[in-house]
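Suppose a classmate hands you a notebook page containing two proteins, each written out with its sequence and a corresponding row of structure tokens. How would you begin to make sense of it? This section walks through that situation. The first entry is reproduced here exactly as it would appear on such a page.
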Amino acid sequence: MSRWIDAVGLEAAGDRIAMDNRVPPLGFVPLGPLDRAVADIAVAGGVARSAGRGSGALWVAGLDPRTLLAHVDGFVQDPGAALVGRYAAPPEGAIVADLCAAPGGKALYLARTATYVLAADPSAPRLALLRRNVERTGLPVGVVRARAEAPPVAGVDLVLADVPCTGTGTLRRHPDARWRLSPEEPARLAQVQARLLHGIARAVPPGGLLVYSTCSLETEENEDRVGAFLDDHPDFRVEPPTGRELPDVGDDGYLRVLPERTGFDGAFAARLRRGHRG
């Protein structure tokens, strides 16, 4: 808690901890229009409302996930994670690579508008879950087992690097993490993230996009990590999406989803454009 008090102040830190102590609601991203999904959920016996903030997600009550998915096309996802996909904003007709994909929610979100998403991850059991979701939704996602630091693809329009992190933005879903995380963990994971980013950058062509994201609230894993990457890779620059109402994008172009402000799981993302050499 002391880290958060130093970062955001006593009141905001208290609000964040209170949010972490609540049972998280059920977030859902429909494949069709929100109003039609709300109506279908009502027919199934549930109640849904827009989560807002540009997420394209719903909060659903009165239905368990299995029943919800049986009645409405879509996938379960917290609006905070959905905002990362919305912020990524792949160009029309884009080919996308999600190189830390499992369990696959962000790959599914991106596949709603991309022409094709290659979803890669080293975990076979977690990829199996993603394959089932791809089969159920019919979205254009290909699944491959691979390590992010050795990308199985190059020259795509957008690469998503949703890297391993402390997950301090999702403690309400993983309360045991409060006792597993040590004060040194953000710095340790930042080294892992740096190694992954170095490898992932090779898959981004000149003119292409790299979206770095975490579900952490810690500066070492977010702003500091991106800053260090930009220092080492001066051909990249921050380029947030345009023409989208995203109130959680700051003046610096980064997406910061704060649980105490939004009611969503926490998330961070940086959308980076690689320049053309010469």
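The notebook's second entry, a different protein, reads as follows.
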Amino acid sequence: MMSRILNTEVVVPVIERLVKKACCELNDNVMEAFRSACEQEESVLGKETIQILIENGEYAKREQMACCHDTGAAVVIMEIGQNVAWEGKPLKEQVNEGVRQGYEKGNLRKSMVADPLERVNTNDNTPAILHTEIVEGDTVTITVMPKGGGSENMGAFKTLLPGQGIQGVKDFVLEVVKRVGGNPCPPYIIGIGVGGTMDKCAVMAKKALIRPIGKRNAKPLYAELEKEILDAVNNTGIGPLGMGGRITALDVHIDYYPCHITALPVAVNFQCNAARQATETI
């Protein structure tokens, strides 16, 4: 198959659109999850809290305003077909230009500092946190997932001993959930990476957040573990926005990868109730 040649400039307007859409429009999957959670919530205050989140999401979309003031770090995930060949300026440069335009034209808060110790704001929310993956085909699928500090700061990683197995994974996730309490702004989604190396595991946990709420892992072992962890989290009593109640998590998504014989890596990444993402394919 001949290569499909794309100029990297094509990603700029796409990412600009995705930034603004993600920040202002919670997708139908998230809004339906809110409505379902509101029906299931047993606490009066919890129900009121979820109803406010529903109204906030509807208002943000209608008025094209950010659904949360923390418009996050711009996580950009690109699935690039192996038959795509690039020309033009460096791809990373164009990704950042798309992010820059999206945050500036969308009047969105700029939250990135150029150096983690010197703490000087870049004033355009670049650079993006860019993840690329080579896949089959000749298309490019781009997902923008703005990641706010409240949820991102609560993530955790641990290398368990292999003998700790499934119970060890469950125990670690519940330990993290109880420790962070309401800080990740529940009801949230929990992304869990199991296996790989430390870096691979963390990326899997992040990417797991993209999966639609209600869609289980294709492997029955992990699908069952997702349901078990979800039930356990929703029995902690943390509740919506940490105010107490039944619905602490909207869903739990696990991705896994082969790992070394000596290790059982586990990463936990939270996505707050402002579960923002938007995707487009070129």
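A careful reader of the second entry would note: Helices lie at 11-24, 28-40, 44-63, 91-105, 149-152, 165-180, 198-208, 220-233.
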